Amino acid sequence: MVTDTAWQEGSRAIYSQYEVYHQSGGIEQTIFHAATGRGRSRSQAIVEGFLQTAQVPEKGRLLDVGCANGNFLQAFGPALPGWQLNGSEFDARHQARVEALPGVDRFYTGPLEAIPGTFDAISFIHVIEHIAAPTRLLRTVREKLNPGGWLLIEVPDCLINPFMLLVADHASHFCPVTLSAVVTNAGFEVLRADDAWVAKEISLLARRTDGPPPATQNWPPPSPAAKQTFSNWEVLARIAADAAELRSASSFGIFGSSIAATWLDAQTGRTCSFFVDEDPNRPGRQHQDRPILSVADIPTKAAVYLALPRLIANAVAKRLQAIRPDVRFVTP
Predict the structure, then answer these.
(1) Which listed residue, of 42, 123, 162, 236, carries a Cα 20 to 30 Å from 194's Cα?
(2) Is residue 215 located within the same domain as residue 146?
(3) Of 198, 233, 236, whose CA–CA distance to 312 is shortest?
(4) Helix axis angle, 224-244 relative to 176-185, nearest 10°?
(5) How far is the C-alpha of 182 from the C-alpha of 133, rounded, in Å?
(6) Where are the beta strands (DSSP E) in the chain?
């Protein structure tokens, strides 16, 4: 992404009006296992993965950077009640809500350098992709971590999920290889970077290394994965063309009510009659001035396009077809 003046001004306009999880009234999205349909919050999945991967002590100090309305802190607190929790944001919009959460000590605004003390873990849940110079930021973060402290990052996986290339305010687009390189150059040892915790996303866990960070940045040659990430624009063009053929269906819906579904709705001329979402907090609401339906409420003989990465879409379609054999589920 070219982060010029126009991009910066546009991003500021987006952030000034942004309401986290507005489709569900501020409630964090539910993520689902594609084959089983099991649902839980994204933050719960990340916390569970962290505890299963790292030897986390009973007591510590966490800073969640870009904490929004505190969903990650709310999931972290009950799992590690001995930890002191802290959040930071660029404004104080959610300060009262966050500081009212059990275990939360402080809510900070302003630069990271001004936050007092150091921490045993620092988390960035869907923040790093909004940063134009992530390595520079993470070198600053490194100085706020105690020796051996954990860095926890969650970002979209643009290799698996081409729809993330569409997000206007994302300054950086990652696959596991490129994110790992950024974190390593900032002075961390990467312990894992994959999509095992949350589908379509990279969950990266790293620890602060001993000694100073690298004096110079070492970037590996472009990998096949990195090249494929940006060739996914071609995948998006094919998806738009495929979905456009459904506009003539008597009843046409799009699965999802977030970024991918919004883009696909625009590409198909806003001709879908409804959206479908398995998140229990979304059906009954409106998206793009049309209803969000549950799977049970999809009209008979409707065609529903699954705005998901192909492998995930195929697994979801197979599961949903068994529930609603009277509906045609179309995959990329």
Answers:
(1) 236
(2) yes
(3) 198
(4) 140
(5) 10
(6) 30-32, 39-41, 60-65, 83-89, 104-109, 119-125, 145-156, 188-194, 201-208, 252-255, 274-276, 286-287, 290-293, 303-306, 328-330
Q: pTM for the complete prediction?
A: 0.85
Identify the domain containing residue 205 by its residue range: 5-220
d(CA 236, CA 309): 10
Does any domain span residue 228? no
- The answer to whether 291 touches 251, Cβ cutoff 8 Å, is no
Q: Which of 220, 249, 271 is the last residue of a domain?
A: 220
Q: Are residues 66 and 138 in the same domain?
A: yes
SS (H, E, C) 154-190: EEECCCCCHHHHHCCCCCCCCCHHHHHHHHHHCCEEE
The answer as to whether 226 is a domain residue is no
Domain boundary among 220, 242, 265: 220
The candidate with the shortest Cα–Cα distance to 25, out of 328, 259, 283, 243, is: 283
Among candidates 93, 95, 90, 52, which has minimal Cα distance to 73? Answer: 95
Give 76's DSSP letter: H
Q: How far apart are CA 217 and CA 175, in angstroms?
A: 18
Query: How does pLDDT run along the chain (332 residues), one tens digit per residue?
Result: 567 777 677 767 666 666 665 565 666 777 777 667 777 889 999 999 999 999 999 999 999 999 999 999 999 999 999 999 999 999 999 999 999 999 999 999 989 999 999 999 999 999 999 998 899 999 999 999 999 999 999 999 999 999 998 888 888 899 999 999 999 999 999 999 999 999 899 999 999 998 888 877 777 777 787 778 878 888 899 999 989 888 888 899 999 999 999 999 999 999 999 999 999 889 999 999 999 999 999 999 999 999 999 989 999 999 999 999 999 999 99
